[in-house]
Amino acid sequence: xxxxxxxxxxxxxxxxxxxxxxxxxxxxxxxxxxxxxxxxxxxxxxxxxxxxxxxxxxxxxxxxxxxxxxxxxxxxxxxxxxxxxxxxxxxxxxxxxxxxxxxxxxxxxxxxxxxxxxxxxxxxxxxxxxxxxxxxxxxxxxxxxxxxxxxxxxxxxxxxxxxxxxxxxxxxxxxxxxxxxxxxxxxxxxxxxxxxxxxxxxxxxxxxxxxxxxxxxxxxxxxxxxxxxxxxxxxxxxxxxxxxxxxxxxxxxxxxxxxxxxxxxxxxxxxxxxxxxxxxxxxxxxxxxxxxxxxxxxxxxxxxxxxxxxxxxxxxxxxxxxxxxxxxxxxxxxxxxxxxxxxxxxxxxxxxxxxxxxxxxxxxxxxxxxxxxxxxxxxxxxxxxxxxxxxxxxxxxxxxxxxxxxxxxxxxxxxxxxxxxxxxxxxxxxxxxxxxxxxxxxxxxxxxxxxxxxxxxxxxxxxxxxxxxxxxxxxxxxxxxxxxxxxxxxxxxxxxxxxxxxxxxxxxxxxxxxxxxxxxxxxxxxxxxxxxxxxxxxxxxxxxxxxxxxxxxxxxxxxxxxxxxxxxxxxxxxxxxxxxxxxxxxxxxxxxxxxxxxxxxxxxxxxxxxxxxxxxxxxxxxxxxxxxxxxxxxxxxxxxxxxxxxxxxxxxxxxxxxxxxxxxxxxxxxxxxxxxxxxxxxxxxxxxxxxxxxxxxxxxxxxxxxxxxxxxxxxxxxxxxxxxxxxxx
Length: 729
Known about the structure:
This protein is an alpha+beta fold. It is built from 25 helices and eight strands. It has three domains: 2-40 and 167-415 and 528-723, Multidrug efflux transporter AcrB transmembrane domain (Multidrug efflux transporter AcrB transmembrane fold); 67-160, Alpha-Beta Plaits (2-Layer Sandwich), CATH 3.30.70.1430; 424-527, Lrp/AsnC effector binding domain/regulation of amino acid metabolism (RAM) domain (Alpha-Beta Plaits, 2-Layer Sandwich), CATH 3.30.70.920. Helices cover 63% and strands 7% of the residues.
């Protein structure tokens, strides 16, 4: 099947290349316009109590969330001074007349003590927008922003709250994305030239990467016609699309050069490449795509968007590596080695096909299949060294990985706040100043909607809440007919456990007769997010692991190897999670990495990492096992097969990991903390997986398992022989 696909691509190479050019044009001219169609939020569960509380408050009372906090301050004047008062009230009066604004609340209207700083030199106003949809709110805020600035000299205006935070986060994310691409692409090109030894071969992976990104952008724009998609999907498209496209191109191109080095003509080399490397790319791509698609089980638009972007990026990268790349190779032939860069002496042999020189094979090698049952080289020697003492290496490496993973046992989850932004960004400064300079000190009050029962029910609920621990005040936000909205302030951060415990206690209060209590606000939304993600996480893991087990069985005909692969993935990902907790929760290396530790981890971050890293770890596993299985089929010698597989893939897996680290490193240097967290976590996982796991732990465990590596009971064995995705088929 795969060899026939290679022949088909060779015959239709010009058609394939013409279609690729058309996709590039479509992506540049139309797909790139997707940025204007993406949403900026989507972090809430539509079915959660906090979301229902917000929607019911709008419907029953007409009260909307506070969208913008406008902080006015002066180092000399106080809020009661006429110059300060007149300038701010005139500004707010003009803002009230704007069509974007539903309501403005200020100290000058209410004399509420919480709206004036304790030293009297600052006050803040609460602005609610007419729009209810996030995209419309974003547009309204951008249009309103200049009007919020007090023009008087000596009065400083700073904007905080939900919409400034989201807009700032999106802007910084776009800047991080552009910087990551600017930093990584030149380094990638240099490394690819070093790996392949020539400019033409080095350009192939970058071409496939660009095609993967543009194709995914087209798919995402089509998807925006039927559902909301978050702007953060673009980050994962760039990261996964570029990284995996380079991986797949590296593997296919390396195998093609190996086939040419074995003396095969170009069409035969492409057939053999598709029958081996092409099959491996297909298995890897499907596995990673299914792992990322498991994110679609979550109701949050943000999580589903990461799943959409990652899945499309992987599928397009896989399709490009299986169609466009072999078509290019069919046209270029041996000219793929053109424009060589002299980087040292040509090596005599033992290459994996992705080194600086084509592998030299003896006549005996060419007479036999491309696979020899035994090979020599540095990677094979490492494998044999490990397999001489497999139990020692297995236990030792597992102990090291367990030590790295240990901090994850103390993980604490919480919602993100303004501290994910770099110091000095206005939304963060506003939040910090309100916490330290104002009575009540919170920018995330708890909203309690008492629906039905009228004033008596609201008074009963207010009295009960006031008696709860950590409550500093209960205020009447608004009321209409029989419904009342209460605002609860408290000690501590909105993301603290104390705030979440307070939400639980309020929800546990008895409801007055004829009324219903719904609790919303930021602490409630964070608590609901944890519950929503935690409830669906087991299903995600089950789907991801099941898909991996099935695909790896069809690829290798073994029952035990897929189970081992899932366990290896869990070990390497666990080590990454431990490092992330040690760094970002506990605050180690905070100065070096330039972030503010919050004492907790936002829960969606490790879930996104789990999906991406599980797929990437499986990618390397498939690369290695495909060559081991190829050697096993040729020799039937387990030890020699493992050594051969590692020798054939050691350089290519190391090169792929290095290139992917370069791609991810651009994100690790970003300004947004959760983007930085994902970048650092992925780098750790990639390095651990490509070294400790693939180089040491996998050979050790395969040596211990022996012939059981390839065991399958009778019915499953027959299923594999009939439907398996075998090498050379």
